[in-house]
Amino acid sequence: MTMKAIQDHYPPSFAHCYGCGPANPHGHHLKSYLLDERTEARFTPDAIYSGGVPDNVYGGMIASLLDCHGTASAAAFAYRDRGRVMGDDGPPLRFVTASLQVDFRKPTPLGEELLITGTLRSLDGRKAQVSLSLSAGGVECAHGEMLAIELRA
């Protein structure tokens, strides 16, 4: 049995995101997974996402990956906290970014698989604080801190 990505559980009305929406034919289709106490996604950026330094990813792409993975992570952690599973018959839990701080630590190489991880720092009502990391070849290239807010049903 293959594990479904967090984004694969998004209802059609929330599946159009350029970064992670499965229904966006032009998007990146980032896939995030809840693995015990953290979330994980993998993505290999094409050469068109070059930054000002040759052979490295531009910062906007890095922020985009952290953004999409962070909101998916917030939703997955909220489902788990409430004793629910994604795709159940209850109303969907969706989060949006209220704040995203990104620290660029090392150049991020193009053409290499990137690992994006998320860990829950806190969940208080509709607010989720998620720590994020983006690495290549075991080296952290960017770190992010996100405040995500749950959309009202």
Summarize the structure.
The protein has 153 residues and is an alpha+beta fold. It contains 1 helix and 6 strands, in the order ββαββββ. 36% of the residues are buried.
Give a written overview of the molecule.
- The chain is an alpha+beta fold.
- The protein has a single domain (35-150), classed as Thiol Ester Dehydrase, Chain A.
- The protein is 15% helix and 35% strand.
- The protein has a 6-stranded antiparallel sheet with strand order 1-2-4-5-6-3, with helices on one face.
- The longest helix is centred in the middle third of the chain and has 23 residues, at 59-81.
- It is globular.
- The relative contact order is 0.20.
- The mean pLDDT is 94.
- Pfam families: 4HBT (PF03061).
- This is PaaI family thioesterase.
- Residues 56-135 form the Thioesterase domain.
- InterPro entries: HotDog_dom_sf, Thioestr_dom.
Mean pLDDT: 94
Write down the oligomeric state: single chain
Globular, elongated, flat, extended or rod-shaped: what is the shape? globular
Order of helices and strands: EEHEEEE
Binned strand content: 25-35%
- Characterize the main sheet: 6 strands, antiparallel
The CATH top-level class label: Alpha Beta
Helix count, DSSP H or I runs of 4 or more residues: 1
Contiguous uncertain segments of 5+ residues: none
Q: Percent range for helical residues? A: 10-25%
CATH topology: Thiol Ester Dehydrase, Chain A
Task: Kindly report the name of the CATH homologous superfamily.
Answer: Hotdog Thioesterase
Structural class: alpha+beta
Q: What CATH architecture would you give?
A: Roll
Distance between the termini: 31 Å
Number-wise, the strands total 6
Strand order of the largest sheet: 1-2-4-5-6-3
Radius of gyration: 15 Å
